[in-house]
Design goal:
- With 257 residues, this protein is mainly α.
- It has one domain.
- The protein is 70% helix and 0% strand.
- α1 packs antiparallel against α2, α2 runs antiparallel to α3 and α4 packs antiparallel against α5.
- It is globular.
């Protein structure tokens, strides 16, 4: 499979993954759908001229997407992938909640891939030059995050129990913050950009940290949270095609995590 060279080609590749996931009832397709929606929104904002340097932002976004697409293909070809992606993809076959499947993908793609993509795409330039557009991507994402909670309720009717659990436990690992993840990714991108010979070592360290976070997302330390997630999972919709269909809306689908 050739690597996409534009955001539209990225969307086309994601459509293939989503279609395959629906056909095979593979829950890896749930994150792929959420990622496609956010990528489509970025494309929309690029076309609207919302970024300081749209061409540069698209290049970075394509590099970012290709890291996920390459990892997805390598995992299914039984080739080497990062520990964090291997963990996330392997977990797609396990009876986790829909929300956990989404967050496992987001955790790896934002905390690991985004840092790598941002630093590598700015090689030879000052990384600070892309900070404004990087932060504007945050704004774009937060403009479309206000409805996912309701939409997830259509396929995960007991999801509201997490709000109660969050008030009654000290651990809020399930309360995944995209803003915090992207801020950490920006910090990691700056670190990688500043490194040369030690960059591979730094990426391995980030990978290990992301893997640890993924393990906590999959199995929180709190027994109460683990039990709540198990109960939520019992009532989650199990058919991937149905899940994706219900998460869609007319026009642009919007999401909240």
């Amino acid at each position: 499979m050739t690597q996409p060279q534009s955001i539209q080609e990225v969307l086309d590749h994601l459509d293939i993954i989503i279609d395959d996931a629906i056909a095979n009832n593979d829950r890896a397709g749930i994150f792929a759908f959420v990622y496609r929606r956010t990528t489509a929104e970025i494309q929309k904002e690029i076309r609207a001229g919302s970024f300081e340097d749209a061409e540069r932002l698209e290049r970075m976004d394509v590099v970012f997407a290709n890291l996920y697409l390459k990892a997805y293909q390598a995992y299914h070809d039984q080739e080497q992938v990062s520990d964090a992606w291997k963990f996330a993809f392997a977990s797609s076959n396990e009876p986790l909640t829909i929300l956990q499947h989404i967050i496992l993908g987001m955790n790896t793609h934002i905390n690991l891939d985004l840092a790598i993509a941002t630093s590598s795409s700015m090689k030879g330039y000052e990384i600070s030059e892309i900070e404004g557009d990087f932060n504007h991507v945050n704004d774009v994402l937060f403009n479309i995050v206000n409805e996912m909670q309701d939409r997830l309720g259509k396929v995960s009717p007991l999801l509201f129990l997490l709000d109660w659990a969050g008030k009654n436990t000290d651990e809020k690992i399930i309360d995944f913050s995209m803003r915090k993840a992207r801020q950490q990714s920006w910090n990691s991108a700056n670190l990688l950009w500043a490194l040369e010979s030690e960059q591979a070592v730094a990426i391995q360290k980030i990978d290990r940290l992301v893997l640890k976070l993924g393990a906590m997302i999959k199995s929180p330390r709190s027994k109460l949270l683990r039990y709540i997630l198990k109960v939520i999972g019992w009532f989650d919709e199990k058919n991937v095609g149905t899940i994706i269909s219900r998460l869609k809306q007319d026009g642009e689908a919007k999401i909240k995590i």
